Amino acid sequence: MKGIIFTEFLDLVEDTFGLEMVDQIISESELPSEGAYTAIGTYSFSEMLQLIQNLSKHTKIPVDDLLLTYGEHFFSVIETNYAGLLATYNDPIEMLSSIENHIHVEVQKIYPDAELPTFIVQEKTATTLIMVYKSNRAMHHFGLGLMNKTFEHFNSSAEIILEKIKDDGTEVKFIITKH
Ligand code: HEM
């Protein structure tokens, strides 16, 4: 998992819960990196899993809710760092249906070792999109946060329903209806 996912996560934890919380979740996790991340480095996903599970334990906020909030925050990171890529779109359904064959393809060119999910488009119209998310990392709520902000970015909104295909969240169907 890319370092930018860690650095932005810890910044958000610090802003929301304070530096003590950052220190606490780092010291309680078994981190080969010892919690020292650089944006361009690559680290084990198990480090992120432990950090977020420990944050969930202390805040009593479910992991999926934390991932949703983090996904919404991460969209602003994308707006700042990948403005050119965003500018190639003028419609949220077009953008979301292009994650697999354009957006994440470009991300993989920038970071050859990025670990990205798969999004398979099952149905698409001008106002609806059904996509299946697949990833061993089960970060579907991070994706949901990014999707919410994608609609906001285009001054639009949508109803987004998540249906788990696999109980462990490694395969999830997103049913998206633009308002
Ligand atoms: C992961 C970039 C749009 C869903 C990632 C990662 C990067 C990235 C750098 C981390 C990879 C790693 O740590 O190895 C971008 C950029 C985007 C974009 C630059 C737009 C310009 C989106 C959108 C979604 C999405 C719109 C909406 C669903 C995800 C998910 C992950 C991810 C769910 C977590 C990894 C996983 O689930 O396996 N993306 N992304 N991305 N991205 Fe994107």
UniProtKB/TrEMBL annotation:
<feature type="domain" description="Heme NO-binding">
    <location>
        <begin position="2"/>
        <end position="160"/>
    </location>
</feature>
<dbReference type="InterPro" id="IPR038158">
    <property type="entry name" value="H-NOX_domain_sf"/>
</dbReference>
<dbReference type="GO" id="GO:0020037">
    <property type="term" value="F:heme binding"/>
</dbReference>
<dbReference type="Pfam" id="PF07700">
    <property type="entry name" value="HNOB"/>
</dbReference>
<dbReference type="InterPro" id="IPR011644">
    <property type="entry name" value="Heme_NO-bd"/>
</dbReference>
<dbReference type="InterPro" id="IPR024096">
    <property type="entry name" value="NO_sig/Golgi_transp_ligand-bd"/>
</dbReference>
<protein>
    <submittedName>
        <fullName>Heme-NO-binding protein</fullName>
    </submittedName>
</protein>
